[in-house]
Every structure is written in structure tokens, then in C-alpha cells.
Amino acid sequence: MSGRAFVFGDNIDTDVMAPGYLMKLPPEELASHCLSAIDPDFARTVQPGDFVVGGQSFGIGSSREQAAVSLKLLGVKAVIARSFARIFWRNAINLGLVCITLDEARHIAADDRLSLDLQVGTLFNHTQDTRYSFAPLPGHLTGMIADGGLIPHLKKRLAAKGEHA
Amino acid sequence: MTLVEKIIARAAGRSSVRAGEIVTVDIDLAFAHDSSGPRRWAPMLEELGVGLWDPDRVAIVSDHYVPAVDAESASILKFTRDFAAAHGVKNFFDMVGICHLVLPEHGLIRPGAVIAGGDSHTPMAGAFGTYAAGYGATDMAAIVATGRTWLSVPKTIRIEWRGAFADGVAAKDVMLFLCRELGLDNAFKAVEYAGPTVEAMGMAERLVLCNMAAELGCETGVVAPDAVTFDYLREIGAPVEDEAGALALASDADARYAARHTFDASALEPQIAAPHSPDRTLPVSGHQGVKIDQAYIGACVGAKIEDLRMAARVLKGRKVAPGTRLLIAPASARTTTEASADGTLHALTQAGAILLPSGCGACAGMGAGLLAEGETCISSTNRNFKGRMGAKSANVYLGSPYSVAAAAVAGHITDPRAMLEGVAP
């Protein structure tokens, strides 16, 4: 299964993914405005399984998790960027939205067809016939991803330990 | 070790840590606001089947949807209020200002603490010598449920400033300059501010440096605790018991840094960031004459009493230019009280400024003062991303309170130093 690349530049901030003045909206409605300030057609044309490709500091700005929530609700398969802003990266991982740090993201062009193998750690660019390798997630986070994100992971841990919070 | 490594080591129960290590830390204070806090936490805590790990170490501040302007924001504020009451949160601050200023005003920010905040400008607390980092709602829900989180010990960038600022230049200019110099791509790093210029700064200016560590992309910004820190805390009735211990948090002489930079404060001119990113900064002369529709003094970083006094120095005896509006949202209720007592408010309103409620306001794109399509604003806030302060096609320039006030008087961006000649500090 391959998806289409939607390519954005450096410093894609959380305000353009989840504008403050719309934060009262239910998540699905907020998602329909995701990135509209820089690409009015994005939310309407992105399909489940597609990819968002950024440059440096993807997700810079506010801590608002709705930036990652919106991409996930739109069915984005993974965000690929040269670097991520820390809070966005943590938010995405906590929610199970895949983030791949890849310097070669700069070679990916709009509408390239991509497919992802998370187990092996490779991204294949069908359009350019190129394979990119990326570093696996830090070990302490793979269990969390396998459990479906931070809250399900914590729930499991609390139940296992009988831990009181 | 660096200051940040020392704080993290203590919270991780270790004698030392090194940048890059992943550790679990105990949280000293967790906080969030009405937008990122209870309304997001409640369903997750319910799913986990737990309450708050320690209601005395959780603070909640309603500052984003204040005061309510419609039924939805009223309902968010009510939810926040009810949550705080139901969970026994004593440190609940309802519409008394912005979290990043209200918490230090109430003595809750203590040197050496590890602080987790549900807002990206949490690093502001680093001005007291804390490790303070911002988290999203799910991270915060887990933190308030367990009192712990993981982190990768950040590398520290050390930035030293020497020399004295020219009149009309402020910490805000330092940060806009650094956004251009260092860029925004500094994730998983801390920034430490030091040197004679920083040592000579009061807490208000140090708060500005640490607040905008967020704009550098850093996870925290810090200033080592010193006599200035202790004096601030004594004055608000929260003295530090172990001053020697707090002083010992300062980075060791042999600490390892990712980078070190030294800058000359006396050479710094007022700085202005152009739309739509804080790193698009030039000295004010580079934007001279840009016509503005709105000047906005607000936000955690730019509407403290000291900021309002900077604006008042420019505005006293002058008028806001016809066709331009100046909006001022003091950062806290205490700010308004102080500004009222010392004549600052009078100087501002006499000049034609409109006073808005304390809170995050237009900075967060939620409160009064949003922009129409195509409008241009100069703002004392910390970020100017596209569409953040209202319409997508609006343009927001960032500057110090001096620069914002000067632009309000002129009707266009101009060097504030010219308006300060002969004006007493």
C-alpha cells in the first residue's frame, strides 16, 4: 500500500495545523481546517494512507495536541521531516501518529508515492525508485507504540503493577 | 554538569546524568490552563481509573478563554472550575492572569524544581533556575496521574551577554536577535543565559529570555539562581531556605555544552521579527515605515508591569496615531493593580490605548483583539505564525514593548530610541 506525499517546508507550526480561534470545535471539524492557511486543499484532498513531508522543526510552536490529532484524524500514515519540534514529536508518539526523522525528506517531491516499513525501518519512494533508511524509535517507546499510545500503555502498566497514582 | 543536568539528576534520583541519557524524573509541579488542562485530562484520567497523583503539586490557571465570550468558552471555564474543586486543587487561579506569570507571582516556582506545564511557554519558569518544559495534553494527563515522566537529558547551549543595553533596548530584542542567529531548530536542547548583562537583569527580563527559549525550539531555558532570584522570592513571601544549595546549581566550570556563544549587549539595536516566523528578524531600521493597523501589548512574555512601564515611557504625553489602534492586555490582575497604582495605566489610556482583560487574549488566537484579513499588527507577544492572531492573511510583526508603543504613536514601525530621548527612566 503506497500513499501520496504532501510536501511542506521548514517550521510548519502548530497554529497552521490547529488554529487557536477554532480550538473550541470538535476534533473532526478542527481537522477539516488543518494546514488550510498554507494549503487550502490539503484537508479535502489528503487520503487515509497519505504522507505529510516537512523540513526542519516540523510542529514548532504551541503545545496543542490537536495539531497531531488532526493529522491522525485525516488518516495521515506518517509525518516525515528533517527534524521535529520536541512537543509535537512527543504528542504524536503518545497518540500513535508515526513521525520519521529523515534528512532525505528534502528529496521527496509533492505527489511522490511512498510506502513505509516500520519493522525494517525503511521508506520506499516509488516515484523516484529510492529507498531511505531511518533510525528506529528509542527502545523505551516501542512498547508504548505497540500498546497503542501512552494512555493504553499506562493503563496496562498501572493494572500490572497495581500501582496507585 | 550543567545547571540543567544537576536539576534533572536530583529529580531522577541520580548523582549525575549526562546529555542524551533517557531518565525518569519526579515532577515537583505540574500545571496547565483551561484549554490544555482539565477538559483534556478528564477523559484520560477516567480511562485510567485514577485521580491526580498529588493535588498539592498540580496547579490550574484559567487564562485562555477568559473572560467567556460565548457559551462554549463559558462551558470550558465552568468545566475547569468544577474539575479543580472536585479534585481538591488548591492552586487554582481563575481569571487572574496568564499561568506563566501567575505561578511565579504566587511563589510556586522554586529554584531547582522540575516543572511540567501544559503549554509551550512553560520554559519561562527557568528564569528561577528550574527545569521547566512544555507538554501536550496526553503527556500531561499521564504526569498528573503518576507524578513522573521520561525525558532525554538535553544538551545545553550556553549564551553569554556582556555590556549594557542602550536605552530602548530590552530582553525581547535579545530573543528576537537570537531567533535569527540560532534559528528555531534546537529541539531536545536547553539554553542557558549567563554573563554580566544577564546577572544585572531583574526577574522580569530573565523571564522574557526563558519564555522565548520556546521560540528557539529549545525544551527549556535557564538562568542560574542568584541574589536577584532570592530577592524576588523574599519580596513575594516565598523565601528560599537553602540559598547555598540553590547557588550550587550553577553550571560547573567544566560542564559540557553543545555550543557556547558570547554577544555584546551594547551593540544590540531594537529588533523586529517580520511575518510569519520569529526568526525573520532584522534591526528596526530594516522595517522602518511599515504601516500598522493595530499595536498589541499582551501575553506572558510582553505585558508584565515592566513591559507596561516601557510602553508608558514612550506614550506619556503622546497620542496613538489616527487610523491605528493600541490594545493592551496586562498579563495578570496584579499587573493591572500595580499599573493602576503607579500611574502607568493613566499614561497608557490617556494616549488612547484600549485596555483588555488579563489573559492570553489575541496572542493565542482566542481572546479579544484578533485581526481581519490583510491587516498588519505589531505585537509584544512571542510568536507570529500565519493565522495565529486571527485572519490567515493578517501580518504580525514582533517587537519589544518600546517598539510596539513607538509604532502605535507613529502609525508605522519606527525606532523607539528616538522617542525616549530626554524621557526619564
TrEMBL record, chain A:
Keyword Lipoprotein recorded: no
Taxonomy, superkingdom: Bacteria
NCBIfam families on file: LEUD_arch (TIGR02087)
Enzyme Commission number(s): 4.2.1.33
Domain spans labelled Aconitase A/isopropylmalate dehydratase small subunit swivel: 51-104
GO molecular function, one term: 3-isopropylmalate dehydratase activity
Catalytic activity: (2R,3S)-3-isopropylmalate = (2S)-2-isopropylmalate
Pathway(s) per entry: Amino-acid biosynthesis; L-leucine biosynthesis; L-leucine from 3-methyl-2-oxobutanoate: step 2/4
UniProt xrefs under InterPro entries: Aconitase/3IPM_dehydase_swvl (IPR015928), AconitaseA/IPMdHydase_ssu_swvl (IPR000573), IPMI_Swivel (IPR033940), LeuD (IPR050075), LeuD_type2/HacB/DmdB (IPR011827)
Family matches, as SUPFAM superfamilies: LeuD/IlvD-like
Keywords assigned by UniProt, alphabetized: Lyase
Known role: Catalyzes the isomerization between 2-isopropylmalate and 3-isopropylmalate, via the formation of 2-isopropylmaleate.
Taxonomic lineage of the native organism: Bacteria, Pseudomonadati, Pseudomonadota, Alphaproteobacteria, Maricaulales
Assembly information from the UniProt record: Heterodimer of LeuC and LeuD.
Family: Belongs to the LeuD family. LeuD type 2 subfamily.
Protein name as catalogued: 3-isopropylmalate dehydratase
